[in-house]
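Its record is quoted verbatim for completeness.
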Amino acid sequence: MRLPADAAREFSGIELDRNKPLRFVLDGRSIEGFAGDTVLTALLATGTDTFGTLGDAPLGLGEGFAPLIASRNGTPLPIDRLPAADGAGYATIGPRKKKLFGGVRSLGHRIDEHRIPVWSGATAEDTLSADLLVVGGGIAGLSAADVAATSGKSVILIDRRPWLGGDARYFGPVGDEESPATLTVALIERLKGLPNVQLLTNTEAFSFSGASTLVHRIVTEAGSSRGSVVAITAPRIVLATGSAQRLPVFAGNRLPGIVSTVSAYHLAKRYGVCLAPIALVSTQSNYAYRLALRLHDTGIAIRRIIDARINPQSRFVDFAKASGLNLGSGQFPLTATVTRHGLSVAFANVGTSNAATTLDTGALIVSGGFQPELALWMLAGGSVRWSSDRLEAAGHLDHVALAGSALGYKSLQACGQSGKVAVAQLFGEPIHLIEDVEIGASFETPDAPTPMAPATLGTAFLDSGASLVRRPTSGALAGGQALTIGDVTASVALGLIAANDAAAVAEERGAPGGPLVASSWTPVPKPAPEFPPYLAGRFGKDPRRLHLIVDDKCQFEPGALVYSNLGKRDAMTAIGIIVAAAEPGGTAIVQASADTDRFVVETIQGPSPARIKS
């Protein structure tokens, strides 16, 4: 399943060195690959695409859903993050079935339930420290690290993947934006040259405790990889964790050969891998057409692009038509089943529940909407709320700031700007407006909701990755299950969770590795500015800061104007303002020329006398 070395669009694998072939042994079978492969991508390239079976149903291998490998000198290693090493011998961890489904296609594991990574309860072996930790190496994270480092702050940037750059290349530029590839490469090279920056790939954050973030890190030296848990101490954190692509819900939606459009892009672009030489593309957005065109250019036979929208408009749709690709609209996947030669996929017309078309294919590439990745935000103590068709961040944390598509930004420009704004927010610097430019709906048909089959004709999962939550055949979700944000979002779409309850359910039952626990984070103490910068000069050059009270109970609201106890009261004659509540009264800044210790504070209830607290 390896694309040719001269594949168009750099789909030969930009992470690979094809001049350095390698071979390793996994569970007794010999696997070939190239320098730059992970163990997972080498397996997929040689046709092994099945983790094992859950009951009688086979489940496909993929990023975030693959077995761990035993390690002699550290924590177990996930094969989707483990660099393949020439001559290595690996053994996967977990129960195996005696009779393998799919023969050489399967690793043969018996998958019983969601398993929490074994390092989630481990203690740190080492400690790193910096002024700022950035989680996520996409445009927003790289921009945050860049602006912080160039201002002299020490920065550690981590990403769970073996490479930096995020998903920006999948989406491409908007309008006349700079190419994502050009921008990310330039940022990465600049950061590599700065002495106050550490870039740590293959590093996954999984816990916050006190002033430390615990991460699982894979380090490769002299061809040997080792996993360890490291504590990163940083008083301020930018979470540029991006968005997760949602899984369309239909029977058989996690069979081998089914892959999301984002994962399919990275497999081809980074590692020159496509799951089959013939593929169907099922989408509800325009970006899947762009991917289909690029795969078509490499020689992959795109049997059909099927869109849940009716007659969508897009430059990518026009390009696909001009390239002779077969297009269909107004349909969504209903069921997928395994055949001798791949998959058989039934599609239904939108608004119906019966199969209208059944097509055979080697691989099914599916597209769903995007849900901001907020699990770490919640783990740090942040809140979420339901908005339209997704969960969004809510509230504020003094020590943590979100950036990029984790905040809902879409354009390359806005994601980069938001990384810089997040740093400014954390360090008390001026914040600038973020402009998120999108192409108008008259030129690009907006995305449709993530496809949801109206009836379950077999096992259907609510999310991809480590989650194994299945859609119930009737009734509500089973209690006590740990739910990913994707599980919660799908459950709302299916009517299993009320939209008003989505935030509470996500905060109570969703986190990396299991149910959320209360964060032990404490806010980083920040001295209050003597005078808020937005009031500079409003009450003279050197105003006084006073604690004003009226009695031992009344509190003054921030923003209440302060007047002399003599003369008329209107906004232009105010001599001060309450800038912070206090117990009792409030903290005010008052012009220095006000030679009095008696004042009037204009509260919501009316004017109140006030004096300086002795």
